[in-house]
Inverse folding.
């Protein structure tokens, strides 16, 4: 069995035949000897297929050909390229073997004679023994001719009932040189195979078409070309005409007022009752801060504070009149400023909870001695009326110190101190509410964002009261409904078209708002929107396109002049040879410019 098989390929050999020989070859190395023009190896897709088959069967492939394009493809798919003898002087340090090919075909034989290589000395060359005639009996080289094998099956035809052999052409001997390529290139994507095979099919079709036209009379070809051009021109002339119609309608100025309601209870735009959907927002914020007192004067001021009064005596509420005394364990007296009723105890799930109420108290006398920390208080009146049960069960507790008691020169809160603190806190609360509202209503229109309600301030000291510092707190809130402006503009568009029979471009209208009222009971925002801008006379575009069909330039002018509501119009016919508006309405494009 030969270890190397040499396959001689003719110009017209089919790739399928060559591939069959390659697959059936038992040799591990196959050398293809190609003519300069080989149809089978002209298509790059065949190289991809041959590369895949070589990998599949573990065979090495070499090509010997004088065509540089085929050699380039062979290098691309990692096949060895065997060069002709005249390029031997250009060899560097690559492996090379030179041999000469002699005549190998005989007309009367079906099996070709193998090529007889002649060695040229070179480093790393094969020995002369390697180039013996191959016959599958252990010789190193076996030479096969594709054309001979094919003719063995197809080269015999019947003539007058007798077989007739086709005489093949003999090939001239050439001097060949084997050059082994050291470098290797990456495998191309498999998609190239399908692309190249498709190109090969179209190449074959184009080749057959060229042969057909080559045999066709030249005058007939010229005549056919002229007729084709005329027909093509007629088709283009008839089918490519188009018209573009630009119409500017007459303007009508608008000055309209519309009463609108927005609420989260409305889910759709209601043009009949001028209602639009809305979203309810309720935002509350509070700010507080401690400020120093900057005034100073002689004072005789009583301490103040708050205590929680508890009723553990019974379920019956206990009333306390204004100036009721509360006494500390040190005997200091504080009095209530108004009448209060302390709730009685409650029972829930077997647990008794005392009633309680917070009351404001003031020291019985001025002075710093009444500025006491959080304490427990009793009501002396119960003890004086000999009611120990109430004395023990009805009592008071404070959680903060009493403040403000002073006699003599002391720091006091001035009017400037108080108002500056109030203005700063109101500004902070307003900003916090506006920022929060803007964040929550992103994408919605809010028209009463300035209607923020600010609560009265709470301060630990009033103007002219003695205190080194005072803490003030201010709260604020807003309730409103946000809505989508596009819903409002859609409502306005419907209203104008219905009541005025005009067309409007919603985005070009100017809107202002007044009479804004928010009803907290129904969560409904009512307002009046003032609408200004331009409306336009309605244009029936489809009717105009139908009426213009088939008209020439003068007829177009006469027609446009008679269309009511048209300020101006422009009609463009294309290409330049078109003189009438196409009959097909689809070829006419109409645009209304507002």
């Amino acid at each position: 069995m030969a270890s190397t098989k040499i396959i001689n390929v003719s110009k017209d050999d089919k790739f399928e035949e060559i591939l069959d020989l390659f697959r059936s070859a038992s040799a591990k190395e196959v050398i293809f000897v190609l003519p300069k023009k080989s149809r089978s190896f002209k298509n790059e897709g065949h190289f991809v297929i041959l590369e895949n088959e070589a990998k599949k069967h573990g065979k090495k492939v070499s090509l010997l050909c004088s065509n540089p394009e085929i050699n380039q493809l062979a290098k691309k798919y990692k096949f060895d390229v065997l060069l002709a003898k005249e390029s031997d002087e250009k060899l560097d340090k690559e492996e090379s073997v030179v041999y000469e090919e002699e005549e190998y075909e005989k007309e009367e034989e079906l099996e070709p004679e193998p090529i007889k290589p002649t060695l040229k000395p070179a480093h790393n060359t094969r020995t002369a023994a390697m180039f013996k005639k191959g016959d599958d009996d252990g010789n190193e080289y076996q030479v096969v001719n594709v054309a001979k094998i094919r003719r063995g099956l197809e080269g015999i035809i019947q003539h007058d009932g007798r077989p007739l052999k086709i005489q093949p052409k003999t090939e001239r001997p050439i001097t060949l040189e084997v050059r082994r390529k050291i470098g290797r290139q990456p495998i191309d994507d498999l998609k190239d195979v399908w692309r190249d095979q498709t190109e090969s099919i179209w190449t074959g079709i184009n080749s057959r078409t060229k042969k057909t036209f080559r045999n066709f009379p030249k005058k007939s070809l010229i005549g056919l070309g002229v007729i084709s051009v005329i027909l093509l021109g007629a088709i283009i002339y008839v089918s490519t005409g188009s018209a573009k119609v630009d119409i500017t309608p007459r303007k009508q100025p608008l000055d309209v007022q519309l009463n609108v309601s927005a609420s989260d209870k409305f889910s759709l735009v209601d043009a009949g009752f001028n209602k639009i959907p809305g979203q309810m927002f309720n935002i509350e914020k509070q700010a507080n801060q401690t400020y120093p007192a900057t005034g100073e004067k002689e004072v005789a001021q009583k301490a103040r504070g708050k205590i929680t009064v508890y009723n553990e005596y019974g379920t019956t509420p206990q009333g306390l009149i204004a100036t009721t005394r509360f006494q500390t364990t040190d005997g200091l007296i504080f009095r209530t400023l108004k009448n209060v009723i302390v709730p009685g105890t409650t029972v829930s799930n077997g647990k008794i909870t005392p009633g309680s109420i917070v009351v404001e108290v003031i020291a019985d006398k001025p002075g710093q001695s009444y500025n006491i920390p959080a304490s427990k208080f009793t009501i002396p009146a119960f003890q004086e009326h000999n009611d120990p049960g109430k004395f023990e069960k009805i009592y008071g507790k404070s959680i903060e110190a009493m403040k403000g008691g002073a006699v003599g020169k002391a720091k006091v809160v001035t009017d400037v101190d108080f108002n500056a603190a109030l203005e700063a806190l109101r500004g902070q609360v307003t900003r916090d509410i506006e920022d929060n509202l803007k964040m929550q209503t992103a994408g919605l229109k809010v028209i009463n964002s300035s209607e923020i309600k600010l609560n009265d301030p709470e301060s630990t000291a009033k103007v002219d009261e003695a205190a080194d510092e005072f803490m003030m707190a201010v709260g604020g809130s807003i309730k409103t409904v946000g809505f989508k402006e596009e819903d409002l503009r859609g409502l306005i568009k419907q209203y104008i078209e219905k009541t005025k029979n005009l067309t409007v471009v919603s985005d070009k209208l100017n809107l202002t708002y007044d009479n804004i009222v928010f009803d907290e009971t129904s969560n409904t925002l009512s307002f009046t929107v003032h609408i200004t801008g331009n409306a336009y006379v309605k244009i029936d575009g489809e009717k105009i396109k139908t009426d213009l069909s088939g008209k020439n330039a003068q007829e177009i002018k006469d027609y446009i002049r008679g269309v009511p509501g048209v300020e101006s119009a422009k009609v463009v016919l294309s290409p330049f040879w078109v003189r009438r508006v196409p009959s097909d309405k689809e070829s006419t494009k109409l645009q209304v410019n507002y």
